[in-house]
Each structure stands twice: as C-alpha cells, then as structure tokens.
Amino acid sequence: MLKTLPVAGGMFLAGCSSVFDGGGTVLGRIDIINSSFVANRIRVLVTRDDETLVDREIELPALDAETGAPGTVIEPSWSETQGQYTIIAVHYDESGDRETESWEYTITRDDYDRYYADSHEDPGCIGAVITIGSFAETENAAIGISPTYMDRPCGTSR
Predict the structure, then answer these.
(1) Nearest Cα to 138, choosing from 40, 30, 67, 58?
(2) What is the value of pTM for the model shown?
(3) CA separation for the pair 68, 34 (Å, rounded)
(4) What is the strand order of the sheet 71-74 is part of?
(5) What whole-number distance in Å separates Cα of residue 25 and Cα of residue 32?
(6) Domains of the chain: which residue ranges?
(7) Which residues have a Cβ under 8 Å from the Cβ of 101 and sit 6 or more positions away?
C-alpha cells in the first residue's frame, strides 16, 4: 500500500481547533524517536479519512548513550479538520525497498479524552509518538505508534 501512494503535496499550514463537534479528533504534532543502537529508516504515512496528509521517508541515526535518543518531529501542516487519523510506519532499506510489515494506529476521540478530558486543558488536538526499537533490539526493530500527552500538541504556531 505504501509504495503505491503518491507523495502528499500542497498541504496548508494550520493550527488545531479547540472545538470538537462530536465523533472525530484533530491530530497534532508527531514525535519520532529511535530507541535502538542501530540507525533506522522508516516511511511514515498519515491519513485522515483516507486522504493522504503525510508520506515521508525518515532516517534516524542510532541511539547514542551520551546524547540520548535521536528523533525528529512532524509538525502539523494539515488543516484542523476533525476526522479519523491513521498513522502507518514501515522499515525501508537504503535502496528504498520495504523490509517489514507495517505498524499502524488510528487516533480516536477516546484517545483525546483519555489525556485531556479530566484536566482544564483543551489544546484542541492530540499529539502522537512513533518509537522505533529498544536498547536490546537491532535492525528492523518493532515500531510503536500511540497517542500521547504533550504540552503543545498542536505545534509551534499555538
């Protein structure tokens, strides 16, 4: 599926809305962290209701015990539209060939409520984290994708 999708383009920079009208949610920032002692190359796909928002290959250096876990951030460049956001990640090798099965997670309104409903905060969106591997794993380590609490999940513009 990932190889057949075109690269998403023409995205509009937007913040996140703090008003929810019911069933959907808004996805904010995505933090990507390599927790493995080997470099990893992954392809990240983000969709909203079957519309491709992000399709990007990301190279992450190996974990360094002195400097910590290398990572990157995908800031939200999509509109603040509520919907069903799905994040998919797959390992790719240097020649661009898929090396593993895909991991995926769909962000729901329940995820947003779990982190923000009982607090006085209403950031208007929820962030996510993609973690590759662990200290004990080597190449093509498991990829974890999940929603997470963030102080500013809607990106730097908020």
Answers:
(1) 40
(2) 0.79
(3) 10
(4) 71-74, 27-34, 126-132, 143-148
(5) 20
(6) 14-148
(7) 90
